[in-house]
Amino acid sequence: MTVAMRDAYGEALAQLGGLRPDVVVLDADLGNSVRCDGFGRLYSDRYIQVGIAEQNMVGVAAGLAACGLVPVVNSFAAFAVCRALDQIRVSVCQTGLPVKVVGSYSGLAVSKGGSTHASVEDIAVMRALPGMTVIVPGDAEEAAQVTRMLPDIPGPVYLRLYRNAVPPVVPAGYRFRPGKAVLLRPGTDVAIVSTGTMTARALEAAGRLAGRGVGAAVLHVPTVKPLDEEAVVDVAARCRAVVTAEEHSVIGGLGAAVAECLGERHPMPVHRVGVPDRFGESGPDDELLAHLGVDEAAIERRVLAALGEGGG
């Protein structure tokens, strides 16, 4: 059964509120959309509605963190990251305060919100901030686990969530560990290193490739920073090619992190699947993903090209 990450997040956040009285939730007038409003209905004394004022929200959160609380700020990824960047950089990262920034509606599927709402640069921006942990869950179960763990992850955290339902990808009994990747499928021809929503698409592409005699390993990387370099090097060393996949710009995100890692530790070409150097657009989700080259077919084509077997 597929469950939307935002729904799983909302439920887990409400559960967290009952376990941790030091957790405070801040909302920039999008509580119903990002599903943090359920926390507010249960714990109104720890729910702060700041209105459409993302910069102020982060500043308030930093003050609360300095007083010993664990603030969780909520907005769309495009707004949480880009509008409030100065406050995140100065008030949160330079101080190392444990503010947790949750960016929902990430990537391209933003209910036809178009380029203003699509966030294809947020991982790159947050990854570049010193001390910031960047987590991109692959499905609802993983998103819920990360949410319940947020207070225990030291320092600033950026949690990137997706609006729509995605197929489950983590195995039964899985336990998220910060900074650790998980091998979801073995293979020795190509290593597909993916994060977020692209992991489900990577698994689908790997299944198609198996029908063509190509053994594709799928390494899911929920923590983009700090990167699990050992897992990346290990899977790359077992394969003839590496392909990264992310619903994000090809610049500065997972593909860049993997290329930097392998360039220093196990030099080999890295082929990136992601949004080209452009903003998102408005349109039906499936059509938009195909148009910008971040669907299952795009992964399959890139793998075949990397192996020199055609596909473009």
TrEMBL record:
Q: Which cofactor does it need?
A: thiamine diphosphate
Residues of the signal peptide: none
Q: Does the keyword Iron-sulfur apply?
A: no
* Transketolase-like pyrimidine-binding domain boundaries: 3-169
Q: Which UniProt keywords apply?
A: Thiamine pyrophosphate
Coiled-coil intervals, chain numbering: none
InterPro entries tied to this protein = PDH/Transketolase, THDP-binding, Transketo_C/PFOR_II, Transketolase-like_Pyr-bd, Transketolase_C
Q: Which Pfam families match?
A: Transket_pyr, Transketolase_C
Q: Say which family it is in.
A: Belongs to the transketolase family.
- What's the name of the protein? Transketolase C-terminal subunit
The organism that produces this protein has a lineage beginning with: Bacteria, Bacillati, Bacillota, Clostridia, Eubacteriales
